[in-house]
Amino acid sequence: xxxxxxxxxxxxxxxxxxxxxxxxxxxxxxxxxxxxxxxxxxxxxxxxxxxxxxxxxxxxxxxxxxxxxxxxxxxxxxxxxxxxxxxxxxxxxxxxxxx
Length: 99
Known about the structure:
Elements: H1 2-13, H2 17-28, E1 43-44, E2 50-51, H3 56-68, H4 70-81, H5 87-97
Antiparallel strand pairs: 1-2
Helix pairs in contact: 1-3, 2-3, 2-4, 3-4
């Protein structure tokens, strides 16, 4: 799995911030983006819950989050992907809800 993660990060490193935020949003919905080959199949624990602590998905999401920031990830999800807020509403929400 480590070789796939290194390969995936090399691919992601070539993308712009907006595309990274889009991929983060796709991974956040438990889907697999077409830009990353070899989709990961979710592993399940004994109770049938998806185990994701050290999954490839989680590692890639964390890398994107550290690279572009959590704000950029959430802004793309809320303003572009789901169209829940305008940019202005998001900025106001961010100020009110960030530590």
